[in-house]
Specification:
The chain is mostly helical and 342 residues long. 61% of the residues lie in helices and 0% in strands. Helix 7 crosses helix 10.
């Protein structure tokens, strides 16, 4: 009897990962619905209310000073070491690298640039809005406060709103924004909310931010996430433009790529001496083609041997002839005669 093993959730996840990468047929892009518009308006009103409450030195500023004098890092020193590492989840550099790595892998799997472009758009909005607010309000942090009970605004600081908190809301919230299923979106939204809440309270514990800084940072990050659907048409056009540019470069590279034609065999280069010899070949052939000469007959008469001939001084020799000197042949013959004793 054949039985099949029931696949667990982990088995189904790995089976899905083993499939070939393919572009999804339908990407669920969030739209700016009426519900989202209401949330955006409410969050913007909360943002402006926090700024106004701090600007007029209301009860919120007095509560900030009370929390600062409470010094949470002295009340619970045993968690200080852990929170020093936990606050890194709100730093822009490490969190952006981690989230970009995950979204890059997802972009490769789905053959789409939307996750990376959405992350880039959210971080750009975060830098512009939060950076401008920090520099515009210029509030000093608790460690640099001058006047007790004042709002410390306009003194050249850069901690209002909290950048750690806003970055945690945007960086981890973008995972929920790009989730492919409603269930995953709900779970990731809750996880990002808890993470950003913990990062904000950690900065208050460490004494680097006022409590009102954290509240404004939460509102600033949430405004960016709620405004992302307005950026979706621009993200889609940017993705289409990048893919069109890629296809254009590929087509241009294919047209301009030289075809491999077998190169002709170069003619052998001859040295001048070989060329001279080669030029003489036709002349030799011409000479050989002439009719043969008649044989030369020696003159009749006796011929002397070479050893009996008189030596002749070669032309151009520097040594003058000596008539008194016996010939080499005669001397050689005399030495060759046998000696007879008398």
């Amino acid at each position: 009897m054949r039985t099949e093993r029931n696949l667990t959730r982990l088995d189904r996840v790995f089976a899905r990962l083993d499939r070939e990468p393919e572009r999804p047929a339908h990407i669920d892009v969030p739209k700016m619905s009426r519900h989202r518009v209401v949330l955006f308006a409410a969050t913007l009103a909360f943002y402006l209310a926090i700024v106004w409450a701090v600007a007029i030195t209301s009860w919120l500023v007095r509560f900030d000073w009370q929390v600062m004098f409470f010094r949470p890092y002295q009340q619970w020193p045993e968690i200080h070491a852990f929170l020093d590492y936990y606050v890194v989840l709100g730093q822009r550099g490490p969190t952006a690298v981690m989230v970009a790595a995950w979204l890059g892998w997802r972009s490769w799997r789905q053959h789409t640039l939307r996750p990376l472009l959405t992350l880039g758009a959210s971080l750009l909005l975060l830098n512009i809005t939060v950076g401008a607010a920090k520099l515009g309000m210029g509030r000093l942090g608790p460690h640099y406060a001058i006047n007790i009970g004042s709002n410390e605004m306009g003194l050249g600081g850069d901690i209002f709103p909290s950048g750690h908190t806003a970055n945690a809301v945007v960086t981890w919230g973008i995972l929920a924004y790009l989730a492919s299923t409603p269930r995953a979106r709900r779970w990731l939204s809750a996880l990002s909310a808890v993470t950003s809440l913990g990062v904000g309270l950690t900065t208050v514990y460490l004494g680097t931010h006022w409590l009102s800084d954290v509240l404004l940072g939460w509102a600033a990050g949430l405004l960016i996430l709620l405004a992302l659907p307005w950026c979706e048409p621009l993200i889609a056009r940017s993705e289409a433009g990048i893919f069109s540019l890629r296809d254009l470069l590929r087509a241009r590279r294919g047209r301009t790529a030289p075809t491999r034609v077998p190169s002709p065999v170069p003619a052998p280069v001859m040295s001048p001496r070989a060329a001279a010899v080669d030029s003489e070949v036709p002349a030799r052939e011409t000479v050989a083609s002439r009719p043969p000469r008649s044989p030369v007959h020696l003159a009749p008469g006796p011929h002397t041997a070479r050893s009996e001939r008189t030596p002749v001084t070669p032309v151009g020799s520097r040594r003058p002839p000596h008539p008194e000197r016996p010939a080499r042949a005669a001397a050689g013959a005399a030495s060759a005669r046998p000696l007879t004793g008398g």
